Amino acid sequence: MSDAHKGDFGRVLVVGGSRGMIGAPALATNAALRVGAGLATVAAPDSVQLAVATLCPCATSIPLPQSRTGSLNPRASLATIRQMGLLTSDRPTVVAGGPGLGRGDASFDKGLVDLWIAFMCAGVPLVLDADALNAMSKSGSHGWSRVAWSRLVITPHPGELARMQGVTTKAIQADRGRFAVQTARELGARSRGAGESPVVVLKGAGTIVTDGRRIYTNRTGNPGMATGGSGDVLTGLIAGLIAQGLSCFDAAVLGVHVHGKAGDLAAKHFGHASLIATDILDQIPAALRA
After folding, report:
1. What is the domain count for the chain?
2. pLDDT digits (tens, 9 = 90+) for 42-97
3. CATH code: domain of residue 255
4. Helix, strand, coil shares of the chain as percentages rounded to 5?
5. What is the pTM of this model?
6. Could you count the other beta carbons within 10 Å of the beta carbon of residue 137?
7. How many CB atoms lie within 10 A of CB 81?
8. Is residue 290 part of a domain?
9. How many Å apart are CA 67 and CA 104, to the nearest integer?
10. What residues make up the domain containing 172?
């Protein structure tokens, strides 16, 4: 559109970061912008907010209340988010939660669950990764089984999916497709008719994307992408595509494909051993053109 403006391409809110893990939310935020989101905001604990903001100068940032350990204080953060109108008049198009959040006690886990549910109840799609998934799994009846999930994408690696299913990582790897489909169906069992079915993105060689009915196995990517921060880039890619109007399933499929393609292009320049997450980020424009 010749008369388009940044508001036409959605706004991504990335919630993440903690003391010692400032790169993860920055990678996700920059990936969302690189894939075409019009606006991106990163919300991080107060003590690291400026450091995270420095790593993503094209995004805005929000300081959130934190604990004594430098991690997010979920309950206080939810109150701040409400006060800022991020659940009402100024709510984002999509939320990416988890990159660099770190782990905490039972109160921390329960507070994170409340935070994600608040966004979902406000009609905001969610892309949950990393420590967001760990908190959900540890929360028992306060986590996955608490509400009817809709417009949700989760991006577990095999170990995270193993914790969700109560099995070993070896078992997941032996039957990746079955466990991915089973998880998507379990998440969607209570949300029939409530909107888009939850989507599972099981990362690894031949990443699987499924909503419990459709299944896509990715063929792009290489072993060099098994590096810290690669998953954070994928989280931002998927969120950025949802922000632009794609369904959760289509955004996950395209995001996974582009992520792998960017990794393949980066590997041509640097080789597998030297590839790092920022190389994948830098190759997103070329991957989109290809």
Report:
1. 1
2. 999 999 999 999 999 999 999 999 999 899 999 999 999 999 999 999 999 999 99
3. 3.40.1190.20
4. 50, 15, 35
5. 0.96
6. 19
7. 23
8. no
9. 10
10. 6-285
